[in-house]
Design a protein that fits this description.
Helix content is 34%, strand content 23%. The chain is α/β, with parallel strands linked by helices. The protein has one domain: Alpha/Beta hydrolase fold, catalytic domain (Rossmann fold, 3-Layer(aba) Sandwich). An eight-stranded mixed β-sheet has the order 1-2-4-3-5-6-7-8, sandwiched between helices. The two termini are 25 Å apart.
């Protein structure tokens, strides 16, 4: 079966704090997008991995937008997976109000586009997994996915009662950055808040298992997670 054609582009988004934010966009090239999805970067920027994820969603019929969350300190930044210290200053420079403004800008841009259904989702990876959770707490998202979202526990547990759409969490059982205690804390917070969620833990996978550019890439877990993500987003 031939691969669906997609259209790739860059757009400039206006943020409420007066800044301008570049974003990578992938859309179906042979039909109108059925829904929109915000694809949220790792700490390593809107790199080839994140662009590839956006492309994959476009082939599934979504209009995907990946905003550059480091636009205030490093526009166009793409970090080295083997040099985390180089990305740390940009992560530290982020603020919650700034991140919320960026997420709203991406959401509003999607709403302004021609969508078959005015349904907006989000999905994020690592730092972006935390941002996807944050987005779901401030935006009326249909559903949201979070891959190994570090910092949800303990930083954003108090946001659980504010979540709008159903959440899907992916965790690596071997992840030493996000411990079993932190994973349980996230589940406990959503349970206490009465929020629906899915908790998928891959016992033999590590942090970053979905990214085929990382040494932690786990092909089987990545394939199963992608299938689960697609089923989760369906009506």
């Amino acid at each position: 079966m031939p691969e669906s054609r997609i259209v790739q582009e860059r757009v400039e988004l206006s943020v409420s704090d007066g800044t301008r934010m570049s974003a990578y966009v992938a859309r179906p090239g042979d039909r109108d997008a059925r829904s929109g999805i915000i694809v949220l970067q790792e700490a390593f920027g809107v790199n080839s991995h994140i662009r590839n994820v956006a492309d994959r969603f476009a082939r599934e019929g979504y209009l995907a937008v990946a905003p550059e969350l480091f636009h205030r300190t490093a526009p166009g930044f793409e970090g080295d997976y083997n040099n985390f210290p180089s990305v740390a200053p940009h992560m530290k420079a982020m603020t919650v109000p700034g991140a919320e403004a960026d997420l709203r800008a991406a959401y509003e841009w999607l709403l302004s586009q021609k969508l078959a259904k005015q349904k907006i989702f989000s999905v994020g990876f690592c730092m972006g997994g935390r941002m996807s959770y944050l987005a779901n707490s401030i935006l009326p998202l249909e559903k949201a996915g979070s891959f190994y979202g570090g910092g949800i526990a303990p930083d954003f547990l108090d946001r659980a009662p504010n979540l709008h759409g159903r959440m899907l969490f992916f965790w690596g059982g071997l992840d030493k950055h996000i411990t079993a205690e932190k994973r349980r804390a996230v589940a406990d917070a959503l349970t206490a808040a009465g929020k629906p969620f899915v908790h998928a833990e891959f016992s033999n996978a590590d942090h970053g298992f979905f990214c085929d550019e990382r040494s932690a890439y786990h092909p089987q877990a990545a394939k199963e997670a992608w299938t689960l993500m697609q089923e989760f987003l369906k009506d």
